[in-house]
Amino acid sequence: MYVAVKGGEEAIGNAHKLLAAQRRGDPAVPEIEIEQIGGQLSRAVARVMAEASLYAPREAALAVKQAQGDLIEAVFLLRASRAAWPRFGYSEALDADKMQIKRRISGVWKDLPGGQILGPTFDYSHRLLDASLAEKKEPAQTPTAEPGRERTEAGETEIVFDCPKAMRALSRQGLIEEEPAVAREPLDLTREPLDFPAGRDLRLQNLARADEGFLLSLAYSSQRGFGSVHPFVSELRLGTVKVEIIPPELGFPLAIGEIEITECETVNQFHGGGALKPCFTRGYGLVFGCNERKALSMAIVDRALRAKEFGEEIKGPAQDEEFVMQHSDNIEAAGFVEHIKLPHYVDFQAELSMLKSLRENYRQGGGRDE
Prior knowledge:
Elements: H1 8-24, H2 34-40, H3 42-52, H4 57-66, H5 71-84, E1 100-105, E2 149-152, E3 155-158, H6 167-172, H7 200-208, H8 212-223, E4 232-245, E5 254-270, E6 279-288, H9 292-304, H10 321-327, H11 330-338, H12 345-364
Antiparallel strand pairs: 1-4, 2-3, 4-5, 5-6
Protein backbone atom coordinates (compact mmCIF):
# COMPACT_ATOMS: atom_id res chain seq x y z
CA MET A 1 0.00 0.00 0.00
CA TYR A 2 1.14 3.52 -0.80
CA VAL A 3 1.62 4.84 2.77
CA ALA A 4 4.70 7.00 2.33
CA VAL A 5 2.67 10.19 1.97
CA LYS A 6 1.86 12.54 4.82
CA GLY A 7 -1.17 11.29 6.67
CA GLY A 8 -0.68 7.63 5.69
CA GLU A 9 -3.85 5.54 5.42
CA GLU A 10 -6.07 8.49 6.32
CA ALA A 11 -4.73 10.42 3.34
CA ILE A 12 -5.33 7.42 1.08
CA GLY A 13 -8.89 7.11 2.38
CA ASN A 14 -9.51 10.76 1.59
CA ALA A 15 -8.05 10.27 -1.89
CA HIS A 16 -10.58 7.48 -2.44
CA LYS A 17 -13.43 9.76 -1.33
CA LEU A 18 -12.28 12.48 -3.71
CA LEU A 19 -12.12 9.94 -6.53
CA ALA A 20 -15.66 8.74 -5.78
CA ALA A 21 -16.93 12.34 -5.79
CA GLN A 22 -15.17 13.04 -9.06
CA ARG A 23 -16.62 9.86 -10.57
CA ARG A 24 -20.15 10.84 -9.55
CA GLY A 25 -19.84 14.36 -10.94
CA ASP A 26 -22.58 16.94 -10.50
CA PRO A 27 -25.25 15.42 -8.19
CA ALA A 28 -27.88 17.45 -10.05
CA VAL A 29 -27.20 15.38 -13.18
CA PRO A 30 -28.66 11.83 -13.24
CA GLU A 31 -26.03 9.15 -12.66
CA ILE A 32 -25.08 7.16 -15.75
CA GLU A 33 -26.40 3.61 -15.69
CA ILE A 34 -24.53 0.42 -16.60
CA GLU A 35 -27.11 -0.29 -19.30
CA GLN A 36 -26.47 3.11 -20.87
CA ILE A 37 -22.74 2.46 -21.03
CA GLY A 38 -23.25 -1.01 -22.49
CA GLY A 39 -25.73 0.20 -25.09
CA GLN A 40 -24.46 3.66 -26.03
CA LEU A 41 -20.72 3.22 -25.45
CA SER A 42 -20.59 -0.31 -26.81
CA ARG A 43 -17.32 0.18 -28.69
CA ALA A 44 -15.52 1.23 -25.52
CA VAL A 45 -16.98 -1.83 -23.78
CA ALA A 46 -15.83 -4.05 -26.66
CA ARG A 47 -12.27 -2.73 -26.40
CA VAL A 48 -12.19 -3.38 -22.66
CA MET A 49 -13.42 -6.95 -23.13
CA ALA A 50 -10.86 -7.66 -25.85
CA GLU A 51 -7.88 -6.34 -23.91
CA ALA A 52 -9.06 -8.01 -20.69
CA SER A 53 -9.48 -11.40 -22.43
CA LEU A 54 -13.00 -11.74 -21.08
CA TYR A 55 -16.33 -11.51 -22.90
CA ALA A 56 -18.55 -10.03 -20.19
CA PRO A 57 -20.46 -6.95 -21.47
CA ARG A 58 -22.11 -5.97 -18.18
CA GLU A 59 -18.93 -6.34 -16.12
CA ALA A 60 -16.94 -4.45 -18.76
CA ALA A 61 -19.50 -1.61 -18.68
CA LEU A 62 -19.22 -1.52 -14.88
CA ALA A 63 -15.44 -1.32 -15.20
CA VAL A 64 -15.74 1.61 -17.63
CA LYS A 65 -17.98 3.41 -15.14
CA GLN A 66 -15.74 2.69 -12.17
CA ALA A 67 -12.67 3.83 -14.13
CA GLN A 68 -14.37 7.08 -15.22
CA GLY A 69 -13.86 6.17 -18.86
CA ASP A 70 -10.15 5.36 -18.47
CA LEU A 71 -10.17 2.26 -20.65
CA ILE A 72 -6.77 0.93 -19.56
CA GLU A 73 -7.84 1.18 -15.92
CA ALA A 74 -11.10 -0.56 -16.89
CA VAL A 75 -9.11 -3.37 -18.54
CA PHE A 76 -7.10 -3.71 -15.32
CA LEU A 77 -10.30 -3.97 -13.26
CA LEU A 78 -11.84 -6.60 -15.53
CA ARG A 79 -8.66 -8.68 -15.67
CA ALA A 80 -8.45 -8.65 -11.88
CA SER A 81 -12.02 -9.93 -11.67
CA ARG A 82 -11.38 -12.61 -14.29
CA ALA A 83 -8.39 -13.88 -12.33
CA ALA A 84 -10.63 -14.48 -9.30
CA TRP A 85 -13.38 -16.37 -11.15
CA PRO A 86 -13.30 -20.15 -11.62
CA ARG A 87 -12.81 -21.65 -15.06
CA PHE A 88 -14.85 -24.76 -15.71
CA GLY A 89 -13.78 -25.65 -19.24
CA TYR A 90 -12.75 -24.65 -22.74
CA SER A 91 -15.08 -23.93 -25.64
CA GLU A 92 -14.82 -25.42 -29.08
CA ALA A 93 -13.28 -23.31 -31.82
CA LEU A 94 -15.69 -20.65 -33.04
CA ASP A 95 -17.23 -21.41 -36.43
CA ALA A 96 -17.09 -18.03 -38.16
CA ASP A 97 -18.60 -19.58 -41.31
CA LYS A 98 -21.90 -19.67 -39.42
CA MET A 99 -21.70 -16.07 -38.27
CA GLN A 100 -24.93 -14.10 -38.20
CA ILE A 101 -23.52 -11.17 -40.12
CA LYS A 102 -24.16 -7.51 -39.30
CA ARG A 103 -21.44 -6.11 -41.56
CA ARG A 104 -19.32 -7.69 -44.29
CA ILE A 105 -17.05 -5.95 -46.77
CA SER A 106 -14.11 -6.75 -49.00
CA GLY A 107 -11.43 -4.48 -50.40
CA VAL A 108 -10.56 -6.84 -53.27
CA TRP A 109 -13.78 -8.55 -54.34
CA LYS A 110 -16.23 -6.20 -56.01
CA ASP A 111 -18.78 -8.98 -56.51
CA LEU A 112 -18.24 -10.68 -53.17
CA PRO A 113 -19.97 -14.10 -53.06
CA GLY A 114 -22.96 -13.62 -50.78
CA GLY A 115 -22.89 -9.84 -51.22
CA GLN A 116 -21.40 -6.95 -49.30
CA ILE A 117 -23.25 -5.67 -46.24
CA LEU A 118 -22.32 -2.15 -45.15
CA GLY A 119 -23.80 -2.45 -41.67
CA PRO A 120 -23.01 -0.07 -38.76
CA THR A 121 -19.85 1.91 -39.55
CA PHE A 122 -18.29 5.35 -39.42
CA ASP A 123 -16.62 4.76 -42.80
CA TYR A 124 -19.21 6.57 -44.91
CA SER A 125 -20.13 9.35 -42.44
CA HIS A 126 -19.04 12.98 -42.46
CA ARG A 127 -16.57 13.61 -39.66
CA LEU A 128 -18.53 16.56 -38.29
CA LEU A 129 -20.05 17.02 -34.85
CA ASP A 130 -23.76 16.20 -34.80
CA ALA A 131 -25.31 18.91 -32.64
CA SER A 132 -28.59 17.00 -32.45
CA LEU A 133 -26.92 14.43 -30.20
CA ALA A 134 -26.52 17.11 -27.53
CA GLU A 135 -30.29 17.50 -27.28
CA LYS A 136 -31.92 15.52 -24.50
CA LYS A 137 -35.14 14.85 -26.39
CA GLU A 138 -34.77 12.06 -28.91
CA PRO A 139 -37.08 11.75 -31.93
CA ALA A 140 -39.45 8.82 -31.97
CA GLN A 141 -38.09 5.96 -34.04
CA THR A 142 -39.79 2.95 -35.51
CA PRO A 143 -38.14 -0.20 -34.13
CA THR A 144 -36.28 -2.14 -36.76
CA ALA A 145 -34.81 -5.57 -36.70
CA GLU A 146 -31.12 -6.00 -36.01
CA PRO A 147 -28.92 -6.90 -38.98
CA GLY A 148 -29.07 -10.63 -39.42
CA ARG A 149 -32.70 -10.76 -38.26
CA GLU A 150 -36.07 -9.89 -39.73
CA ARG A 151 -39.16 -8.64 -37.96
CA THR A 152 -42.43 -10.51 -38.37
CA GLU A 153 -45.76 -10.48 -36.54
CA ALA A 154 -44.45 -13.30 -34.37
CA GLY A 155 -41.29 -11.32 -33.48
CA GLU A 156 -37.75 -11.34 -34.76
CA THR A 157 -36.46 -14.41 -36.56
CA GLU A 158 -32.91 -15.22 -37.49
CA ILE A 159 -31.81 -14.90 -41.12
CA VAL A 160 -29.21 -17.42 -42.22
CA PHE A 161 -26.92 -15.78 -44.76
CA ASP A 162 -25.02 -17.86 -47.29
CA CYS A 163 -21.71 -16.01 -47.04
CA PRO A 164 -18.76 -18.29 -47.77
CA LYS A 165 -15.32 -16.95 -46.91
CA ALA A 166 -13.98 -14.84 -49.77
CA MET A 167 -10.52 -16.35 -49.36
CA ARG A 168 -11.77 -19.69 -50.67
CA ALA A 169 -11.78 -18.38 -54.25
CA LEU A 170 -8.01 -17.89 -54.07
CA SER A 171 -7.56 -21.22 -52.31
CA ARG A 172 -9.41 -23.12 -55.06
CA GLN A 173 -7.03 -21.60 -57.62
CA GLY A 174 -3.97 -22.46 -55.53
CA LEU A 175 -2.97 -18.80 -55.33
CA ILE A 176 -2.81 -18.53 -51.56
CA GLU A 177 -0.83 -20.45 -49.01
CA GLU A 178 -2.61 -23.39 -47.48
CA GLU A 179 -3.43 -23.17 -43.82
CA PRO A 180 -0.88 -25.33 -41.94
CA ALA A 181 -2.29 -28.23 -39.96
CA VAL A 182 -2.41 -27.70 -36.20
CA ALA A 183 -0.35 -30.45 -34.62
CA ARG A 184 -1.24 -29.76 -30.97
CA GLU A 185 -3.73 -28.10 -28.69
CA PRO A 186 -3.19 -24.31 -28.60
CA LEU A 187 -1.54 -22.96 -25.48
CA ASP A 188 -3.42 -20.65 -23.13
CA LEU A 189 -1.61 -17.33 -22.72
CA THR A 190 -3.69 -16.46 -19.66
CA ARG A 191 -2.25 -19.50 -17.89
CA GLU A 192 1.06 -20.19 -19.63
CA PRO A 193 4.04 -17.83 -19.31
CA LEU A 194 5.20 -16.10 -22.45
CA ASP A 195 8.15 -17.89 -24.04
CA PHE A 196 10.20 -17.44 -27.21
CA PRO A 197 10.16 -18.45 -29.94
CA ALA A 198 6.37 -18.36 -29.75
CA GLY A 199 3.99 -20.30 -31.98
CA ARG A 200 1.36 -18.52 -33.99
CA ASP A 201 -1.30 -19.58 -31.48
CA LEU A 202 0.39 -17.61 -28.71
CA ARG A 203 1.13 -14.70 -31.02
CA LEU A 204 -2.52 -14.40 -32.03
CA GLN A 205 -3.66 -14.58 -28.41
CA ASN A 206 -1.15 -11.88 -27.53
CA LEU A 207 -2.33 -9.65 -30.36
CA ALA A 208 -6.01 -10.19 -29.54
CA ARG A 209 -5.49 -8.79 -26.02
CA ALA A 210 -2.88 -6.20 -27.04
CA ASP A 211 -3.35 -2.48 -26.65
CA GLU A 212 -5.25 -1.16 -29.66
CA GLY A 213 -3.12 1.96 -30.04
CA PHE A 214 0.11 -0.02 -29.91
CA LEU A 215 -1.11 -2.44 -32.59
CA LEU A 216 -2.36 0.42 -34.75
CA SER A 217 1.05 2.11 -34.63
CA LEU A 218 2.84 -1.13 -35.50
CA ALA A 219 0.51 -1.77 -38.43
CA TYR A 220 1.02 1.79 -39.64
CA SER A 221 4.80 1.47 -39.34
CA SER A 222 4.76 -1.71 -41.40
CA GLN A 223 2.70 -0.09 -44.15
CA ARG A 224 5.11 2.85 -44.25
CA GLY A 225 8.07 0.56 -44.94
CA PHE A 226 9.29 -0.52 -41.50
CA GLY A 227 8.32 -4.07 -42.40
CA SER A 228 7.12 -5.91 -45.47
CA VAL A 229 3.34 -5.83 -45.06
CA HIS A 230 0.99 -3.61 -47.05
CA PRO A 231 -1.96 -5.96 -47.54
CA PHE A 232 -5.40 -6.04 -49.10
CA VAL A 233 -8.50 -6.75 -47.04
CA SER A 234 -9.95 -9.96 -48.39
CA GLU A 235 -12.85 -9.83 -45.96
CA LEU A 236 -13.92 -7.98 -42.84
CA ARG A 237 -16.87 -9.36 -40.88
CA LEU A 238 -18.89 -8.24 -37.88
CA GLY A 239 -21.52 -10.48 -36.39
CA THR A 240 -22.45 -13.00 -33.73
CA VAL A 241 -21.32 -16.60 -33.42
CA LYS A 242 -22.42 -19.37 -31.12
CA VAL A 243 -20.15 -20.57 -28.34
CA GLU A 244 -20.18 -24.33 -27.80
CA ILE A 245 -18.68 -26.61 -25.18
CA ILE A 246 -18.60 -30.39 -24.94
CA PRO A 247 -19.60 -31.47 -21.42
CA PRO A 248 -17.74 -34.68 -20.48
CA GLU A 249 -20.98 -36.29 -19.32
CA LEU A 250 -22.66 -35.65 -22.69
CA GLY A 251 -19.88 -36.04 -25.24
CA PHE A 252 -21.43 -33.75 -27.86
CA PRO A 253 -21.36 -29.96 -28.48
CA LEU A 254 -23.78 -27.83 -26.53
CA ALA A 255 -24.39 -24.14 -27.33
CA ILE A 256 -24.13 -22.00 -24.20
CA GLY A 257 -24.64 -18.59 -25.79
CA GLU A 258 -23.41 -16.30 -28.52
CA ILE A 259 -20.88 -13.49 -28.69
CA GLU A 260 -20.24 -10.61 -31.06
CA ILE A 261 -16.90 -10.64 -32.85
CA THR A 262 -15.05 -8.76 -35.58
CA GLU A 263 -12.96 -10.92 -37.93
CA CYS A 264 -10.51 -9.75 -40.57
CA GLU A 265 -8.58 -11.71 -43.19
CA THR A 266 -5.92 -10.00 -45.29
CA VAL A 267 -3.89 -11.11 -48.31
CA ASN A 268 -0.31 -10.07 -48.86
CA GLN A 269 1.84 -10.69 -51.92
CA PHE A 270 4.83 -13.03 -51.49
CA HIS A 271 7.43 -13.43 -54.22
CA GLY A 272 8.59 -16.83 -53.04
CA GLY A 273 12.01 -18.06 -52.13
CA GLY A 274 13.75 -21.37 -51.53
CA ALA A 275 11.12 -24.11 -51.53
CA LEU A 276 8.27 -21.60 -51.29
CA LYS A 277 6.53 -20.67 -54.52
CA PRO A 278 5.11 -17.18 -55.22
CA CYS A 279 1.64 -16.84 -53.73
CA PHE A 280 -0.54 -14.70 -51.55
CA THR A 281 -0.05 -15.08 -47.80
CA ARG A 282 -2.52 -14.60 -44.98
CA GLY A 283 -2.93 -12.24 -42.07
CA TYR A 284 -5.64 -12.84 -39.47
CA GLY A 285 -7.35 -10.79 -36.79
CA LEU A 286 -10.27 -11.53 -34.47
CA VAL A 287 -11.46 -9.49 -31.50
CA PHE A 288 -14.49 -9.25 -29.23
CA GLY A 289 -17.26 -6.85 -30.17
CA CYS A 290 -17.25 -4.22 -32.90
CA ASN A 291 -13.66 -3.11 -33.37
CA GLU A 292 -12.56 -3.11 -37.00
CA ARG A 293 -9.47 -0.97 -36.39
CA LYS A 294 -8.10 -3.51 -33.90
CA ALA A 295 -8.96 -6.54 -36.05
CA LEU A 296 -7.34 -5.01 -39.14
CA SER A 297 -4.23 -3.92 -37.22
CA MET A 298 -3.99 -7.39 -35.72
CA ALA A 299 -4.12 -9.01 -39.17
CA ILE A 300 -1.34 -6.75 -40.47
CA VAL A 301 0.92 -7.40 -37.48
CA ASP A 302 0.15 -11.13 -37.57
CA ARG A 303 1.48 -11.29 -41.13
CA ALA A 304 4.48 -9.12 -40.23
CA LEU A 305 5.40 -11.52 -37.42
CA ARG A 306 5.50 -14.40 -39.93
CA ALA A 307 8.60 -12.92 -41.59
CA LYS A 308 10.94 -15.71 -40.46
CA GLU A 309 8.45 -18.31 -41.68
CA PHE A 310 8.78 -16.91 -45.20
CA GLY A 311 12.50 -16.18 -45.04
CA GLU A 312 11.98 -12.40 -45.12
CA GLU A 313 14.47 -9.87 -43.79
CA ILE A 314 13.63 -8.49 -40.35
CA LYS A 315 13.75 -4.74 -40.89
CA GLY A 316 10.98 -3.28 -38.76
CA PRO A 317 9.64 -3.41 -35.16
CA ALA A 318 6.40 -5.07 -36.31
CA GLN A 319 8.42 -8.09 -37.50
CA ASP A 320 10.30 -8.52 -34.20
CA GLU A 321 8.39 -11.16 -32.23
CA GLU A 322 9.92 -10.39 -28.85
CA PHE A 323 9.58 -6.62 -29.26
CA VAL A 324 5.91 -6.88 -30.21
CA MET A 325 4.82 -9.46 -27.66
CA GLN A 326 6.77 -8.08 -24.72
CA HIS A 327 5.46 -4.54 -25.19
CA SER A 328 1.89 -5.03 -26.42
CA ASP A 329 0.20 -5.51 -23.03
CA ASN A 330 -1.12 -2.16 -21.81
CA ILE A 331 -1.51 -3.34 -18.21
CA GLU A 332 2.13 -4.38 -17.94
CA ALA A 333 3.21 -1.23 -19.77
CA ALA A 334 1.09 1.06 -17.59
CA GLY A 335 2.29 -0.64 -14.42
CA PHE A 336 5.94 -0.27 -15.35
CA VAL A 337 5.59 3.34 -16.47
CA GLU A 338 3.31 4.51 -13.66
CA HIS A 339 5.23 2.81 -10.85
CA ILE A 340 7.71 5.70 -10.91
CA LYS A 341 4.98 7.81 -9.29
CA LEU A 342 5.50 5.78 -6.11
CA PRO A 343 8.17 6.71 -3.53
CA HIS A 344 11.76 6.21 -4.71
CA TYR A 345 13.38 8.29 -2.01
CA VAL A 346 16.21 5.87 -1.22
CA ASP A 347 17.06 5.29 -4.88
CA PHE A 348 17.12 9.01 -5.58
CA GLN A 349 19.28 9.78 -2.55
CA ALA A 350 21.77 7.14 -3.69
CA GLU A 351 21.95 8.68 -7.16
CA LEU A 352 22.20 12.17 -5.66
CA SER A 353 25.16 11.12 -3.50
CA MET A 354 26.83 9.47 -6.49
CA LEU A 355 26.35 12.59 -8.62
CA LYS A 356 27.87 14.81 -5.89
CA SER A 357 30.83 12.45 -5.63
CA LEU A 358 31.37 12.48 -9.40
CA ARG A 359 31.26 16.27 -9.50
CA GLU A 360 33.78 16.50 -6.67
CA ASN A 361 36.13 14.13 -8.52
CA TYR A 362 35.62 16.21 -11.65
CA ARG A 363 36.66 19.39 -9.87
CA GLN A 364 39.68 17.74 -8.26
CA GLY A 365 40.76 16.54 -11.67
CA GLY A 366 40.97 20.07 -12.98
CA GLY A 367 37.49 20.50 -14.34
CA ARG A 368 35.45 23.58 -13.58
CA ASP A 369 31.76 24.47 -13.34
CA GLU A 370 30.38 26.53 -16.22
